[in-house]
Amino acid sequence: MKEKLYNLGVGKKDHDGIIATLIEEDYLNEERFAFAFAGGRFRIKQWGRVKIKYELKQKQVSDYSINKALKQIKEKEY
Asked: Of 22, 49, 59, 60, which residue has the fewest beta carbons closer than 10 angstroms?
């Protein structure tokens, strides 16, 4: 998100305030992103848990959110 704001020409001072506001208003939600990413990559692209975990780490998602998202993938479907 910081990269996007920088590309839009927003000053570094304003980044934290904008991001904080977006989080407070639930526009940015790391856990929701992790759930959607993991579920989509598993169902659509047939990715495994290891690859999904790796990609989420690349996107700097917390370990807590990653583990919670991977738990949504049922063992039977996997």
From this structure: 60
